[in-house]
Structures are given as C-alpha cells and as structure tokens.
Amino acid sequence: MQKQTVTKRLLATSLVLILAFGLLMPVTVFANDSIRVEIDGRQVTFTPAPMSVNGRTMLPLRAITESLGMTVAHDPTNNTVIMVHGSTNIIHQIGTASISVNGAVSQFDTPSMIADGSTFVPVRMLAEAIGAAVEWDGARNTVVIDTRGDGVMPAEREYEALPVTRTSTRQGSIHANSNIDGNGGMSWAIQADGSVWGWGINWGHLIGSSSRIDHYSRPVRVFDNAVSVVNFGETAFALRTDGSLWGWGHPGFVGNGSAHGWVNFGEGMEISDWNNVQNLMITPVRIMDNVVSIASGNNHMLAITADGGLYGWGFNPQGQLGNRVSQMETNTPTRLMDNVVFAAGGNAITMAITNDGNLWAWGNGDHGLLLDGRGTDMIGIHYNPTPRMIMNNVSYVSIGGMSVMAVRTNGDLYGWGAYWDEHQLTPVRIMENVVTVSHDAHTMVVTTDSVLYTFGNNEHGQLGNGQSGLANSSDTPIRIMDNVVAVSAGGAHSLAVTDDGVLWAWGANRQGYLGDGTTTQRNIPTRIMDNIRMP
C-alpha cells in the first residue's frame, strides 16, 4: 500500500509539472527517431528515442547520464535529481530550466519534462555541466558530444582531416584460419603469378579432392589468377584479377544458390553431421563479378563490388547479414549496404567502413562488440541486425571471437570487447602509427615503419617470441619482425609476409597448417614460401 501511495504521488507531481509548463508557455513536442547522438565518435542509441521541444533536442535522463558516466540519485520530496561526475556535483529540479553545478546556477531556455513515463532533459544542460562540448550536425541530423576535456569538437581534431585509407586488399594474399584450441586449421597464400596455395586440414576437400588425405603439411596449388583468398569452415573463395569471385566446398555456403548438403540438416543435428556433407563442390564455381574485395565471418561471406556495394550470404541467425535479409540464411549474394570500401566478418557479426570513414556494425552484440554498452550479461541473445555507426575516421578493422581492433586514419589502434576475462565497453587506445592489424585470440599489428608487434593469447606460441603457454601470454605489444607488409592471425597460428615476398608462419601445427612439412609447433617465425604476391 505504501509503495502504491508513493507511486501515485510521483505520478500526480509529474502531471502537475507538465500541466503547469503547458499553461505557462506554448510547447511543440515530438519524438524523433531520426535524431542520432554521438559521444566521443561513437553512436549511442537511446530508449525512449530523443525528443524535439521547440527546436531543442531532449534526451532521456537516465540513458544520457549512464552514457556520460554519471551516478544518479532522485529525491522525490522535491522532484530533484542529484548527479555526480568525478568531482562535479550537479543538482537539477525536474520541470525547471536551471541547473546547479558545484553550487553555480546556470539557466537554460528549455526546462526538463516528463513524457510517457520518462524524464527528458536538454542535451546541453547535462553535457556542458561536465565540461563536454556539444554541437548539432544538421547534415547528419546528429547531436555530437565530446567529453574528452579539451573543448574541441571531433570535426576540429587533426585526424578528422586525414583522408580515408582504402585498405581492402591489404591482406588478401594470405589467410590464416585455425581454432583457438589448435585442433584444426588451414592456411592460404597467393604467389606473385596469381596461383593459390592451401595447406592444413582438408576440410570439405578444399585443398585436395581425395577423401583419404586428412591434411597437407606442405602447400598445395589449388587455383590460379587470384588476388585474394579467404575461407571459413568447409568453404573457400578466391577473387580473380578480372573481378570474378569463385567459391568451392560446402554447397550451402558457396553462394551460387545450391542447397546445403548436410545429411541430417535441422535443429537435431549432431556435431558429426557438420562434416557429413553430400555433393561437396570440389571444383570452383563462379559466384559474381565486378568484385574488388572479399572477407569472411565464422559462417557468412562478404564481398564488395566496384560500385561500393556490400554483398553477403550464409548464416544469419543473429542478423549478421543486416536488416535487408529477413531469413535465417541465404545461399545467394544479397546487397547489404552502399558506399563501402572495407568489410570484416566475425562470429555472427559484420562491420563495414564507408567511403566517409565511418565504421558500421551489426549482428552479434555479445561482449559489447556493437559499442552499445550491452552484451556482458546477455551472452548469446543480444544482437541487432540494423547497421549502426559506431566510430568515425576508421581505415581498417579486424574482428576476433570476443573483441575488435580498429585503426583510425591517424594511425591510432583502438580495441574493445572481452579481453582477458574483462569487458571494455568503450574503445581504448592501444598503439599509434599503425598501418594494419589482424585480430583473433591474439593480435598482430604492423606499424608505419613495417615492424610487426604481437600481443594476446600465446598458448600455442602464436605470438612468435620464442615462448608458448597461457602463462606467457602478453597484454603488451611485443616486437617480432621487421620489414613486414601483410599479416593474418588465426586462432592458434600466425602468418606474415615480408617485403622480399617471403611467407613466415608460427604457432600451433597439429594438422600441418604451418606448411613446413611437419606437425610440430613453432614458437618463432619459420620460413614457408617465397614469391608471395605483394598487397
């Protein structure tokens, strides 16, 4: 009974405030789902949606305070909100246009208000209270908030003026794919003459058609006239010099409209059924033309065409193919997005960089990968099929199993997600002067002076520093090699190409996927092939 009385009193107070301000002044109020909000370069989504009141953007109080890192308390006796941000104490009475910041009172032209059960405040009221800069970007219908403390808006920062680096083919000549436990992996490389070579476990007969050969510990020639190669599971793809994309392996994933070849396809599938496939496509088939770049996720494929169209196909249970694909999977290329210059896939997640340098993400939101502040306590059920802009001025991105690494146009490397059992829900700056990155359970970084650094999981020696074991993993970048032009990180092994065209490999090697003729783990870079195509 007491709880109901208090609730009724609060509702009555809210109604009086709304009526009072409605009588005092004419107010034009409407919700606007199209208003976007960016905080420190990343888009933030609010529920309920922002409102416009007499031309002023109003944001839901609880959502904006949480996004700005404030702690909040409510005093119902006088309907006052007390907020703390570091050493800043902020007091505001709901329904008024004033705010007290460490005792100093400021007046605004629009009061806070209650609508549909939520309290809304003018965006400038709280942002400027903590020293953040605020501006309205009319071209993008976006409120831009910068909390980094120097009062400089993102558009005025030096790196914002740098050109977007088109890096779509930077790592296309090599591809590493291995499980984090080291049990199962493949490697791919393209030589200067365009020949494609594969080695490691013979999933889906991708390397050799003989079912009697479990793995190849030396490179085997499998295709010609290629500039880029990727694979996931039992499916491989190669992009030819004429822009044609070819695929082979699992019929349901190749992308030519073929049905799955699983013997027992459906919810009752056993793990063994994944390898029990009929009608494997051993001979490569042509999928599409005018392709300039390709990438793969764990169970979906991505291709960018010459007009900037991003196409995808494969599995879609968590919306990794975006909101233009409604079904759980598709076996033909579907256009997902326009104006794309780079794309990356991960575990049921897709990210794309558009020609304005903005990074977009959709699909699996576990571990905070979508930068929406969620996913740490909702593993397996948090996803969003709608592309959302999460960072600007990005030139390269690589997605691991539970985290993301992105290179901005000024060469700064940022990371977020789950790393070493901790969740980083906002991008953190890791290194500078970075050209490219490849990320899985460990991370490979090439700097502007062509030096390779590695950090992360080292259970199988994949860092390449002569050590192995989880105890020898490192969260600090370790210098490994010089003169590196391309890298690719698998879950348990690493590939790198030096500027003389030599391919090096190290890490786990259970099925021969290092390519040195053995199944022996290597903890330092080992020379594998010469004459690798330069990126």
Detailed description of the structure:
By secondary structure, the chain is mainly beta. The chain has 2 domains: 2-156, 2-Layer Sandwich (Copper Amine Oxidase, Chain A, domain 1), CATH 3.30.457.10; 174-529, 7 Propeller (Methylamine Dehydrogenase, Chain H), CATH 2.130.10.30. Helix content is 8%, strand content 46%. It has a 5-stranded antiparallel β-sheet with strand order 1-4-5-12-11. Residues 1-31, 149-170 and 262-276 have low confidence and may be disordered.
Task: Measure the end-to-end span.
Answer: 71 Å
Number of strands: 42
Low-confidence stretches: 1-31, 149-170, 262-276
Radius of gyration: 26 Å
Write out the strand line-up for the largest beta sheet, numbering strands in chain order. Answer: 1-4-5-12-11
Shape: elongated
Class based on secondary structure composition and strand pairing: mainly beta
- Helix fraction, binned, reads under 10%
In CATH, the architecture of the largest domain is: 7 Propeller
User: Tell me, what is the CATH class of the largest domain?
Assistant: Mainly Beta
Percent of sequence in beta strands: over 45%
Q: Compute the number of structural domains.
A: 2
Mean pLDDT: 81
Oligomer: single chain
In CATH, the topology of the largest domain is named Methylamine Dehydrogenase, Chain H
Chain-wise SSE layout:
Elements: H1 2-24, E1 29-31, E2 36-39, E3 42-44, E4 51-53, E5 56-60, H2 61-67, E6 71-75, E7 80-85, E8 88-93, E9 98-101, E10 104-107, E11 113-115, E12 118-122, H3 123-129, E13 133-137, E14 142-146, E15 174-178, E16 185-190, E17 196-201, E18 215-223, E19 226-232, E20 235-240, E21 245-249, H4 251-254, E22 281-288, E23 291-296, E24 300-305, E25 310-315, E26 329-337, E27 340-345, E28 349-354, E29 359-364, E30 383-391, E31 394-399, E32 403-408, E33 413-419, E34 422-431, E35 434-439, E36 442-447, E37 452-456, E38 474-481, E39 484-489, E40 493-498, E41 503-507, E42 522-529
Parallel strand pairs: 2-14
Antiparallel strand pairs: 1-4, 2-3, 4-5, 5-12, 6-7, 7-8, 8-9, 9-10, 11-12, 13-14, 15-16, 16-17, 17-18, 19-20, 20-21, 21-22, 23-24, 24-25, 25-26, 27-28, 28-29, 29-30, 31-32, 32-33, 33-34, 35-36, 36-37, 37-38, 39-40, 40-41, 41-42
